[in-house]
Every structure is written in C-alpha cells, then in structure tokens.
C-alpha cells in the first residue's frame, strides 16, 4: 500500500488539499479512518486470506516540520550531521542520505550481481521521488527509477520551486550540470531523463542559482 493511507487530520496544512498535503506532514503515521473505518488490520487480514503478503509504505527517517512528531520533538527529527558536503539545512541534507543509498545499492550488486532491488511496487513502469525545500524554494533532490519499462526516457517535472528563480540541475555522482531552468519551466516543461538499463535509477540535485 503506497502513500495516502496516513491521516493529516489536526495538522496545519499549506494547501488544504489532502491529496497534496500528505507529503507536507510526513512523520505522523496514523491510519486515515475516513478511508479505512476499521483500520488497516482488516485490509491486511483480507490480503493474507487471499494468500498474498501485504506491504505498507512508510518513511521512518522522514518528518516534516508540519508533523506533530516534529513539532513536539524537533531534536529527534532534524539532521544533526554537519560534516557532510551537502549540509545546508534539514531538507538539503536528504541528498547525503540518498547518496549513501545509491552507494549501498552498488555494493550489493557487486557482491550479488543477480540481486534484484525493487525501489517501487510497480514493475514495467517508471517511478521516482522528490524532496524539495518547500519553505525556502532553494531546491532539493529528485530520484528517478526505470522499473522494467519498455520506454527508455521520461520527462520529469518538479513542484514547489520559486517560479521566477533559476535552478541548476546537477547529476549524481559527477555533479555535472544537466541544464538550467526556472521554477516555472521545471514545473510546466520539466527535463528529459534517459536510462538505458531496464532496471536502473538516476539521482539529481536541483540547486537554486540566484
């Protein structure tokens, strides 16, 4: 079960749209009883009855500032490591986490060449994530996965940036500039990503230039 199972009721929101604000309140992992009146256990019991294994999306290391857990315990949810190259604030520090994740995937594939690492639940598609600093609009990171799709390229758009600001798109790990676009252009037009291997991923940093 992917994102959206958790409730944001009682938390301050930025848009008032529950379909959007779930990402702004990550950290409060409470069932949304408007969607699951009897809780998730009933759903998972049915999945087990059908002979399947249920899966639940959760991001334990993620807690946004709107979440109750962050407001009550900020010292537990911020980034305390100040000795890595990309530490500017807690949002940009996600880059250091995902850089290490990519390195771990490489190490695992070297040790077990046939190992299949599934970053998503939908084979034959593309998927990804965005971790953007919604408070400052200074940028963030974008991860893209090709999960067995027949198509080798995709157009990627980025939300929550300053429309008139200019951003540099930097590829990992070489820090090579992929292009420059305004926040408006990144939202409306995006940029093209090509991944040759059917199962692979790319990581990009979106960095504000002005």
Characterization of this structure:
The protein is of the alpha+beta class and 210 residues long. It has two domains: 1-78, no CATH class; 85-210, Golgi alpha-mannosidase II (Immunoglobulin-like). Helix content is 23%, strand content 23%. It has six helices and seven strands; from the N terminus they run H-H-H-H-H-E-E-E-E-E-H-E-E. It has helices spanning 18-21, 39-49, 68-72, 74-77, 94-111, 183-188, and strands at residues 125-132, 139-147, 153-156, 166-171, 176-182, 191-194, 199-208. It has a five-stranded antiparallel β-sheet. A two-stranded antiparallel ribbon has the order 3-6. The radius of gyration is 18 Å and the shape is globular. The relative contact order is 0.11. The mean pLDDT is 79.
Gist?
By secondary structure, the protein is of the alpha+beta class.
Summarize the helices and strands and which ones pair or pack.
Blueprint: H1 18-21, H2 39-49, H3 68-72, H4 74-77, H5 94-111, E1 125-132, E2 139-147, E3 153-156, E4 166-171, E5 176-182, H6 183-188, E6 191-194, E7 199-208
Antiparallel strand pairs: 1-2, 2-7, 3-6, 4-5, 4-7
């Amino acid at each position: 079960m992917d994102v959206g199972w958790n409730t944001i009721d009682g938390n301050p929101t930025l848009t008032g749209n529950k379909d959007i604000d779930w990402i702004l309140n990550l950290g409060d992992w409470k069932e949304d009883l408007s969607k699951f009146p009897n809780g998730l256990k009933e759903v998972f019991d049915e999945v087990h009855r059908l002979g399947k294994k249920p899966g639940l999306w959760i991001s334990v290391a993620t807690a946004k500032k709107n979440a109750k857990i962050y407001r009550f315990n900020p010292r537990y949810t911020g980034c305390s490591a100040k000795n890595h190259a990309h530490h500017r604030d807690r949002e940009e520090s996600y880059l250091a986490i995902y850089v290490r994740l990519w390195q771990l995937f490489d190490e695992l594939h070297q040790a077990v060449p046939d190992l299949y690492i599934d970053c998503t639940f939908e084979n034959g598609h593309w998927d990804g994530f965005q971790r953007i600093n919604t408070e400052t609009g200074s940028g963030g990171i974008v991860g893209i996965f090709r999960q067995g799709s027949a198509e080798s390229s995709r157009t990627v758009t980025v939300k929550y940036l300053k429309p008139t600001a200019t951003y540099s798109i930097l590829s990992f790990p070489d820090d090579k500039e992929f292009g420059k676009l305004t926040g408006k252009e990144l939202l409306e037009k995006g940029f093209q990503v090509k991944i040759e291997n059917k199962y692979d991923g790319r990581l990009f940093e979106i960095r504000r230039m002005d």
